[in-house]
Design goal:
heterodimer; A: mainly alpha; 5 helices; B: mainly alpha; elongated
């Protein structure tokens, strides 16, 4: 079950990443989509585990969101470590990708598992 | 011909000299502080299986320590801005965590285990950044 939903999350998120790339960094769309897919791939293992925990109600929505948000911070930290002007745009795009992944995951889990433990703060 | 070789060489020397004057040097005290703050933040996450109300004072003390560290890092000069920004990010992480803790009152053991790994990962960026600063040769 988690594998099916993860596949759906990744497919849905990837198509939305392409739309985000088109609207924010259209000049570098191809590279941005590649970068976005890499972000999703990098967090795939954690995401699979967290989605499974969310479905089993071992995690609440709030807890899931905190974990996902830590990846956004990681992208910003990584940008700061590389510290170039071009990194700022890449960082903003990366945070957008994480927003997509979190939203898609929560919507699909909610659709599959029904109402979650607690509302979003 | 000689001029063609000497000029780029002088320019390289000048650039290296400029870089060594402006770059932030590694500070043992900062690195010790980074690791201490990492331990304190992990300790706070571990406490979150208990109610927020019972730990509010410790959380406030930790947040005060974050402000102290941010001010200390700011005082190291403008070239230290990436470190300052990383600390601001971590301060945001702690604030988000505190708000969620207040709202939810306690966190699940499963979440605590997962979140500790994430916090450690984020602190590693600050520690690595400090580690990569210029170390004086003794």
């Amino acid at each position: 079950m988690p594998q099916t939903i993860i596949k759906d999350i990744l497919t849905d998120a990837t198509s939305q990443i392409a739309v985000l790339a088109e609207s924010t960094v259209s000049k570098y769309k191809k590279q941005a989509v590649t970068d976005g897919k890499k972000i999703v791939t990098d967090m795939k293992n954690d995401l699979t585990r967290w989605v499974s925990m969310l479905e089993d109600r071992k995690l609440t929505t709030v807890e899931f969101e905190l974990l996902a948000k830590s990846y956004k911070t990681q992208i910003v930290m990584n940008g700061l470590l590389l510290a170039g002007l071009s990194e700022i745009r890449a960082t903003e795009f990366g945070v957008g990708v994480l927003n997509i992944v979190t939203d898609v995951a929560l919507k699909l889990v909610e659709k599959t598992a029904g109402k979650l433990l607690s509302p979003t703060v | 011909m000689k001029k063609q070789i000497i000029l780029p060489f002088l320019w390289l020397l000048f650039s290296i000299a400029l870089l060594s004057c402006s770059a932030v040097k590694y500070a043992e005290s900062s690195q010790a502080s980074n690791k201490r703050m990492q331990d304190l933040t992990i300790a706070m996450v571990e406490k979150s299986s208990q109610s927020y109300a019972n730990n509010a004072l410790q959380v406030t003390a930790l947040k005060d320590s974050f402000i102290t560290v941010i001010n200390t890092e700011k005082a190291r000069g403008k070239w230290n801005l990436p470190t300052v920004n990383m600390w601001n990010q971590m301060n945001g992480v702690v604030t988000d965590f505190e708000n969620a803790w207040k709202a939810q009152n306690t966190f699940s053991p499963v979440f605590i285990d997962e979140y500790k790994q994430r916090v450690n990962k984020l602190f590693d960026y600050i520690i690595n950044l400090e580690d990569n600063k210029i170390k004086s040769q003794n």
